[in-house]
């Protein structure tokens, strides 16, 4: 085998493409395909697990907010407020993403059903759609982002216990430090005994895992969906470019173009479903990401080596997450614009006036590219990423100057 990866020998179903987000979602009780479930008891248990997990998680978020409020009352503890701020931002975004998924569940089901219907079913068709190329890139992106997101939640959750265990069991320290990975206020002494400590510790760990999965899977779902839509736009473009437009076959040419226009319209409808599902959550995501990156960067420049390492993982996760959303938004714009270029590159001058008029309408429609559009934001692209990073740096410079002045 050469450096290229071997193509699959069997056709990949749409559920194969969806496997990673679907399986991760189920670990927190969210079943995307609950409407197809044949077991009412299983669906009920998953819902109870999901709702119970989010009730617990939001109680922990309230504890973080109380801790933040108490910390900003005194300048001596402001650094603790800055340390907990990015975690609060991450938690709120996770909460809102899950809320959006629940609120727009009907739109999500419709989107996935339509994508599954359009999915090429045979291996020959999938090769015609260049699906293996799209899937290969998608898998690499998913692997990297999943690793970073789980590395962040795992490090924050288990580093304090691992550090205390090493000091107590291997280095001979007399006491076991009962610390938590997240700064949370409790209305009781959570370190009063080993039993209370470990119950609270695993409760926090589960809350962190739930937040990480809710945050991760919404973006993994977006990546899978946009990959599929881009694949369909690419197929439309190549079919347009490859169509011979032979003179004297006007009926066949018009039938072909009618099919293309309908197919193109389906792709645009899918993009509208994506916007309905993600627009508000991405708006909050970008606003919070600017603040998160600012506070994390401040922690990196003002902390000890071990804290710097932990927060560097958090920083990388936040920056990669914003980049991926912007990258796929940019790719969606580019692939949808390519449809108009492909239509113009045809030998349309050999066809009838009716065909040329229809082609002109297709080109005019493709000049308004498909895109992800959060409210009050321009369409998401790599330019958006630069703006978010620039905004984060401005917040960071202001915070650093204000902190040093005091």
From TrEMBL:
Domain of life: Eukaryota
Entry's family note: Belongs to the insect chemoreceptor superfamily. Heteromeric odorant receptor channel (TC 1.A.69) family.
Subunit text: Interacts with Orco. Complexes exist early in the endomembrane system in olfactory sensory neurons (OSNs), coupling these complexes to the conserved ciliary trafficking pathway.
Primary location group: membrane
Pfam family name, one: 7tm_6
Protein name: Odorant receptor
BP terms from Gene Ontology: signal transduction
TM annotation in the entry: 48-68, 80-104, 141-162, 182-202, 208-230, 282-301, 307-328
One of the record's GO molecular function terms: odorant binding
Record bears the keyword Acyltransferase: no
Membrane-protein topology: Multi-pass membrane protein
Compartments where found: Cell membrane
InterPro entries in UniProt: 7tm6_olfct_rcpt
GO cellular component, one term: plasma membrane
Keyword list, A-Z: Cell membrane, Membrane, Olfaction, Receptor, Sensory transduction, Transducer, Transmembrane, Transmembrane helix
